[in-house]
Amino acid sequence: MKVYNSNEVKNVVLIGGAKTGKTTLAECMLFESGLISRRGSIEDKNTVSDYRAIELERQNSVSSTVLYAEFNGKKINIIDAPGFDDYVGEVVSALTVCDTAIMLVNAQNGVEVGTEIHWRNTRRQSTPVIFAVNHLDHENSNFDETVRQLKTQFGKNLVICQYPVNPGIGYNALIDVLQMKMFKFVDGKTEILDIPESEKEKAEEHQLALMESAAESDEALMEIFFDKGILTEEEMVKGFLLGLTSRGLFPLFCIDAKHNYGVNRLMQFILNAVPSPQDMPGRKTNAGTELKCDPKAPMSLFIYKTAIEEHLGEMSFFKVYAGEVTEGMDISNGNNGQKERISQLFVVSGKKREKVEKIVAGDLGAAIKMKSAHTCDTLNSLKNPDIQIEPINFPAPKISMAVRAKNQADEEKLGTLLHEYNKVDKTFSANFSKELKQNIAQAQGELHLNTVKWLVEHINKIPIEYYAPKIPYRETITKQAKAMYRHKKQSGGSGQFGEVHMLIQPYFEGMKHPTEFPVRGVEEHILPWGGKLVYHNCIVGGAIDARFMPAIVKGLMEKMEEGPLTGSYARDIAVYVFDGKMHPVDSNEISFKLAGRNAFREAFKNAGPKILEPIYNVEVMVPEDKMGDIMTDLQGRRAVIMGMESDGNYQKIKAKVPLAEMYRYSTALSSITSGRATYGLKFADYAPVPPDVQANLLKVYEEQEKEEE
Ligand SMILES: Nc1nc2c(ncn2[C@@H]2O[C@H](COP(=O)(O)OP(=O)(O)O)[C@@H](O)[C@H]2O)c(=O)[nH]1
Ligand SMILES: [Mg+2]
To answer: Which atom of ligand 1 is nearest to the CA of 17?
Structure first.
């Protein structure tokens, strides 16, 4: 394959709601470029993009596919992204390396949840967007209504470059306002005709609007437009390039991906008018500098995706940001200092790979068998070994589920496997929680979890099941209490003896010490599970030897780790050991550890003990008409509403909600809003549970303890 220069490459990502036709459009683009001689279809399970077994079975994309089309002597890299929000990680990584997003819209449905979600992703990453209205051949497709919804939702900077002449069954003609021609699709051929009389007025209206929009992007163009009242196609294209780059203009095209109508023209537009990698602002580095796409600079490339490919192992997908990478090149990983050699260099189209000698700044490629390179790493030439490009901002997981192998014997294998899976998918993680004694999987949603389950069961042949995760409760106290405990054991030879008197009280910043005894020493323990244990030595007159103090603290710590109420971690407690007794022969460390631990347990019970539960900050984006239902549902989850903001036709509800009430929230939200809402959550703090909840938790724990006895 030819080596493409930076200005001969365009990187586009296909986004949009599920089933809008992204994968089918990708197939058309490959066909138009001559890479394939026959277009596959979703129904026949033979598209280049959806080639993975899971995608063939489900007939939708679950991960992004990297493709390319060589077209008119240039190269268009295409990333076909999955539509469902559960796979948002794949979209975010593709948006990071692509310079333009093509948003597909189904003309039957107009703006869908997916359209809005993906729009927000492009906004976050400042990616230029082109709209491609698809499915124009359906009986109930509605172009005008689709455009109206797009304008309402995404603003007036939407510029109609094409409109359909005969949408609906038999659709086969569009007016191209940029060229002021009619495109008619007959028997696999495109006829470019003069605009018929009946369409002239409408076309001219659109043309004027289009010129105005293009002129608005640039003062020089504005002047030409004022002077002459018209812009040439070339001038318009220049305006488009500027407008797209600054997100001041969003061109709209018409396609029919099923019949491959309008795709060739869309590709021409991509070549001529969308930003090339050199037109885009540089990528930020961790050092705060900017890495502009410069083929002459020392080489830096960024790994945006890692996939496990059959028979090949890990494949690293990258974008070259500066310089050029060649086969056999020695490189250094900016993130971990490891040296590597690029043994084989590829360009990829679905599962097909072609070996290449060289890839230049701005272009996408892939490599295999990297020793220490992971997603988000920067690999550099040895001249500039330390560059680290800013990592991809992957969304935090939204749901947690406990997961286990159906056969106990597979448990260990599963743990390793899920851990490996995190390398490939940064929006999924699984870790064994020592606290909950469960393997906790975290993901974007239930569809995401099910995809992982499918892969583990079909590819690794380990049957697994998800079940409810335990809640990481905490325990603390609300008032002062005293207790003493004497540990005494007389058996045969040497005995055990230790007696500890203590006072405990809630710990908080600026709390006051009790005044009845002097504080002689303070030890502050920051607990690994949050909060503190502050230990005060108040012993006078040598009632307990200093050498037994560490044993007492150890005993306390043991009980803090397995709280007296429900066995959960305890936190934020101040302990004062103010008296005790020793035996000249029988006192030893173990005795004081036990005395300390049991005195603590007794005191704890009388100190107004409370169970605390994790509270999360939850943000829900809901369509306005569903606000009431969502609020009612949230209130049923013991939520405290913190505020509301509007964002287009959406309302953002901010609330604090106990984690215990968020179980299966994504399913509930989805069923209330028919999948039109999204949410995110983040740990906020611990707060006491209401008395009825506490009573119930105590009861459950007691029963559990009895069972274990
Ligand atoms: N009639 C019609 N069907 C289409 C069109 N584009 C895609 N499809 C069909 O819509 C379904 C979803 O397409 P797909 O490419 O998988 O959508 P994706 O989820 O966005 O990748 C498939 O059955 C396609 O054959 C179109 O323009 N017209
Ligand atoms: Mg798809």
So the answer is: 20
